[in-house]
From TrEMBL:
Start and end residues of each Deacetylase sirtuin-type domain: 1-250
Keywords annotated in UniProt: Metal-binding, NAD, Transferase, Zinc
Tree of life domain: Bacteria
4Fe-4S is among the record's keywords: no
Xref: InterPro entries: DHS-like_NAD/FAD-binding_dom, NAD-dep_sirtuin_deacylases, Sirtuin, Sirtuin_cat_small_dom_sf, Ssirtuin_cat_dom
Amino-acid positions noted as binding Zn(2+) in the UniProt annotation, renumbered to this chain: 128, 131, 149, 151
Organism: Desulfonema ishimotonii
GO molecular function: histone deacetylase activity, NAD-dependent; metal ion binding; NAD+ binding
Annotated EC: 2.3.1.286
Active site residues per record: 120
CDD domains attached to this UniProt entry: SIR2-fam
Record's keyword annotation contains Protein biosynthesis: no
Protein name: protein acetyllysine N-acetyltransferase
Length: 253
């Protein structure tokens, strides 16, 4: 892994415009379970039932009880880990422009990244199904489910359920960034949910170097990514930063 980490540091040092695509795996070390693989949420909750907007509209109380309540509590208690902090350090060094995240936990912003495209929205906010009012989680009382807005409307996470469209501006900007970058770091995603999983393909088709950071291979590996650094995001990002800092210091002499 060390050679790959050194190679990634050299590639990042030489890149002109770096974008990251992140998935649930980067937040695993913050205590937030992934959706698939070991400890995956979808192993115990059927995504096409409880993750779908039709079910929420039909029985919001059940979806709040089975899926949202516990996930919201875990997210509220979560802190950024070395994976998030490593990407924030890359931005601070001028080596990362934008993060396209599939995650709804807000941990990239909490770590300090300033340009984060929330491809699937965010669970740190709840939105009223009637008046559209958005409330921070801290202002939402979940002693009774589903929680309601002052107007009486049902509150829902400000995320994208299955069966809903990706926010237009997020989709447009992500496609533009993927086409513009000359490097994409793909961190902690199984790369199977579209259209997010298409972003590394757009990057590759536009000549970018695509680097995956993941303990496992994905459908991108060996086809669209140039190489996979097999490991957990925190340790790999720590290694990349340790190799990159002296390279950047040399360049600035
Ligand atoms: N560091 C890096 N990667 C990790 C780690 C870790 N510590 N732990 C697990 N992974 C990897 C897994 O190997 C897997 O490839 O993270 C990935 C997690 O995959 P998913 O759970 O499918 O998460 P994600 O790719 O973000 O899912 C995409 O699916 O259900 C929808 O809306 C949901 O945004 C989500 C989307």
């Amino acid at each position: 892994m060390t050679d790959m980490i050194r190679r990634a540091a050299e590639d990042i040092a030489a890149a002109e415009y770096v974008v990251a695509l992140t998935g649930a795996g980067i937040s695993v070390e913050s205590g937030i379970p992934p959706f698939r693989g070991k400890g995956g949420i979808w192993d115990r909750v059927d995504p096409m039932t409880f993750g779908h907007i039709d079910t929420f509209e039909e029985s919001p109380e059940k979806v709040w009880r089975v899926l949202i309540r516990d996930l919201k509590t875990i997210i509220e208690q979560a802190e950024p880990n070395d994976g998030h902090r490593g990407l924030a350090r890359l931005e601070a060094m001028g080596r990362l422009s934008t993060i396209i995240t599939q995650n709804v936990d807000g941990l990239h912003q909490a770590a300090g990244n300033t340009d984060v495209i929330e491809f699937h929205g965010n669970c740190a906010r709840q939105r009223c199904m009637d008046c559209g009012n958005r409330l921070a989680n801290s202002a939402v009382d979940i002693s009774a489910l589903p929680p309601r807005c002052g107007c009486g409307g049902v509150l829902r996470p400000d995320w994208v359920f299955f069966g809903e469209a990706i926010p237009e501006d997020a989709l447009r900007r992500s496609g533009q960034m993927a086409a513009r970058c000359d490097m994409m770091l793909v961190v902690g995603t199984s790369a199977i949910v579209q259209p997010a999983a298409h972003m590394p393909i757009i990057a590759k088709e536009n000549g970018a170097t695509v680097i995956e950071i993941n303990p496992e291979r994905t459908p991108l590996t060996g086809h669209f990514s140039d190489y996979l650094i097999r490991g957990r995001a925190g340790a790999v990002m720590n290694g990349i930063l340790a190799a990159l800092e002296p390279l950047m210091a040399e360049r600035s002499r």
